[in-house]
Write a structure and sequence with these properties.
The protein is α/β, with parallel strands linked by helices. The protein has helices at about 40-50, 70-80, 95-100, 105, 110-125, 125-130, 140-150, 170-185, 195-205, 220-225, 230-235, and strands spanning about 1-15, 15-25, 30-35, 55-60, 65, 80-85, 160, 190-195, 205-210, 215-220. Strands 6-7-8-3-9-10 form a six-stranded mixed β-sheet, sandwiched between helices. The chain has a four-stranded antiparallel β-sheet with strand order 2-1-4-5, covered by helices on one side. The structure holds adenosine-5'-triphosphate (ATP). Adenosine-5'-triphosphate (ATP) binds near residues 39, 43 and 44.
């Protein structure tokens, strides 16, 4: 069973098509990496999968059930959570307040909420220590952990992350990747867009390579690491991390 499946998905901005005919899927306990050069359409794809951009073609399935409506509320309620590029936390809200957000909309019972919170602070103990700190005074790494924690508080079927390593020190990137590895072992389905190509291909199970909004290669992540189509997709790109 797929946690999330995109079938023939098209999306763009107004009349400008960006993502074209994308088919992908991810299962529970699996990490799918989406890689490709700057401007290939990775963020646009994740935004569409999260319901934040309308589909101009194709459809989405969550847990093998086809969604008839694909707005942000439908995707959130179906169990798709996006950790956006740049974290996008709420200024003035503390760590604890962030973790509590969404409890009421989802009507999460107290015991279930406590269990989700316990899970999040077990993954990121710093969030317990910094629980009364306002989001804007957190370090970049703490903010990324909070953004992931916020998404996990919804107990999503699919966790999607857009460039989680941006602006983070190598040691923090390793910590975040280790948490993603733990989440996978716990059965979480994960889709990750990441510029650190070789690093993410070591972490992921499978990968898709996007070029001009279309998937040009897919397969086991470690095999794709040496695939010429991966290198071709990055030709001419300004920022690459292929080695
Ligand atoms: P990057 O790694 O640089 O973030 P990406 O693969 O995530 O790149 P997207 O950000 O999805 O690529 O951009 C794909 C294309 O869509 C680019 O040509 C970009 O200029 C265009 N685009 C992105 N956002 C918008 C927008 N809000 N309105 C119009 N065009 C956009």
């Amino acid at each position: 069973m797929s946690a999330l499946r995109a079938v023939g998905v098209h999306a763009g901005y107004g009349p400008v098509p960006v993502v074209r005919a994308v088919d992908l899927h991810v299962s529970a306990g699996e990490i799918l990496a989406v890689v490709g050069a700057n401007g290939a359409g990775k963020t646009t794809l994740l935004t569409a999968l999260a319901g934040l951009l309308p589909l101009s073609g194709g459809h989405l399935e969550v847990a093998d059930a086809r969604l008839t409506r694909t707005g942000p509320e439908q995707l959130t309620d179906a169990g798709v959570a996006l950790v956006p590029e740049g974290r996008r936390l709420f200024q003035g809200l503390t760590v604890e307040e962030h973790l509590t957000l969404g409890r009421w909309r989802q009507r999460v019972p107290r015991a279930e909420f406590a269990e989700r919170r316990r899970h999040v602070v077990e993954l990121f103990p710093i969030l317990e220590i910094r629980k009364d700190a306002s989001a804007e005074v957190l370090s970049g790494g703490e903010q990324q952990m909070l953004a992931i924690g916020l998404a996990l508080m919804r107990a999503p079927k699919v966790l999607m992350l857009d460039e989680p390593s941006i602006g983070l020190a190598p040691v923090i990137i390793d910590l975040v990747f280790a948490v993603l590895d733990t989440l996978r072992a716990q059965g979480q389905a994960i889709i990750i867009v990441e510029q650190r190509v070789q690093k993410v291909l070591q972490l992921a199970d499978r990968a898709v390579v996007i070029q001009h909004g279309t998937i040009v290669a897919e397969g086991p992540a470690r095999e794709l690491a040496t695939d010429p189509r991966l290198h071709a997709a990055y030709l001419g790109a300004s920022s690459i991390d292929l080695d």
